[in-house]
Design goal:
single chain, 306 residues, alpha/beta, Glutaredoxin, Serine Threonine Protein Phosphatase 5, Tetratricopeptide repeat, two-stranded antiparallel sheet, Thioredoxin-like_sf, transport, Thioredoxin_CS, disulfide bond
Length: 306
């Protein structure tokens, strides 16, 4: 299910994405000359031969449509139902479906059969367009850099652009949520999370953003104030715990883990094992390969068995 994020109201719509306008259309034998042969003189055209009864087509078709939209107009797509256009399929020697042709300058220049993984389809489209970059991938990278650099407004704008092209993009949704949190708009982020369907909430990037949101909402104040309180009261475990939450919400995972480990070192049973439980939650959100998670798990284990 796709979502559309409104930059002003930060509401969520579960409406289906648009068909892609002129980028994606249903073709027939009669329209093939105009839609594919002539059109490919201006921009490469992907032709997807499919049928309603074809199982793999139900996977490949939507993925192709998504990636074509992400190319931002560098390629177009025409869908041909082989049951309704058997003569055309025979002329192009379509022996099994799904079969995908790539046309350029009025001629087929590449093809594949079967439901390929997304990475291989991206390679196919890149070759067809002469190496044109996937505009969504480029925007995601630029947005991530902006967010990491503290430019939340630019990051939010870029993530919105991605969602206009790919309304259900998990990385864009997660990035948008992180941008809202960093921008002090946790309430808006919470509204969006509450409306996300279950399949998106299971995505690792969105799950990590949701954890960040939860921790930011639990934070008892700004990082600077909490750090000053901890320095003044080193044995105040609640203040140190709150500082860890604030640090994680501020994208300082290493520092957050450090403070929670210190709480556990000083009193491992404090508040019903709260420090260890929070560490495990952060490790899960970061993912098993994140340096802060790897190092943190190792140090937590050392403390547990010391």
């Amino acid at each position: 299910m796709a979502i559309i994020l409104d930059g002003e109201s930060t509401t969520v719509s579960t409406a289906a994405p648009a068909a892609g306008g002129d980028l994606i259309k249903d073709g027939t034998t009669d329209t093939f000359m105009a839609d594919v042969i002539e059109a490919s003189n201006s921009v490469p055209v992907v032709v997807d031969f499919w049928a309603p009864w074809c199982g793999p087509c139900k996977t490949l078709g939507p993925m192709l449509e998504k990636l074509v939209r992400q190319m931002g107009g560098a390629v177009r797509m025409v869908k041909i139902n082989v049951d309704e256009n058997q003569e055309l399929a025979a002329q192009l020697r379509v022996q099994s479906i799904p079969t995908v042709y790539g046309f350029r300058q009025g001629r087929p220049v590449d093809a594949f059969a079967g439901a390929l993984p997304e990475s291989q389809i991206k390679q196919f489209l890149s070759g067809l367009t002469g190496g044109a970059e996937n505009s969504v991938d480029a925007l995601l990278e630029e947005a991530a850099q902006a967010l990491e650099g503290g430019d939340t407004e630019t990051a939010l704008s870029l993530y919105q652009q991605v969602l206009q092209a790919d309304q259900g993009n998990p990385k864009a949704i997660a990035g948008y949520l992180r941008g809202l949190i960093a921008n002090g708009q946790s309430g808006d982020a919470a509204q969006i999370v509450a409306q996300l369907p279950a399949d998106l909430l299971r995505d690792p990037d969105i799950a990590a953003a949701k954890t960040k949101l939860e921790l930011s909402q639990e934070s008892a104040g700004p990082v600077a104030e909490l750090r000053a309180k901890v320095e003044a009261e080193p044995d105040n475990h609640q203040a140190r715990y709150d500082l860890a939450n604030a640090l994680y919400a501020a994208d300082q995972a290493d520092a957050a883990v450090e403070e929670l480990l210190e709480v556990f070192r000083r009193d491992r049973s404090w508040n019903d094992d709260a420090a260890r439980q929070r560490l495990l939650k952060i490790f899960e959100a970061l993912g098993p390969g994140h340096p802060a998670a790897v190092n943190g798990r190792r140090r937590l284990s050392a403390l547990v068995f010391s």
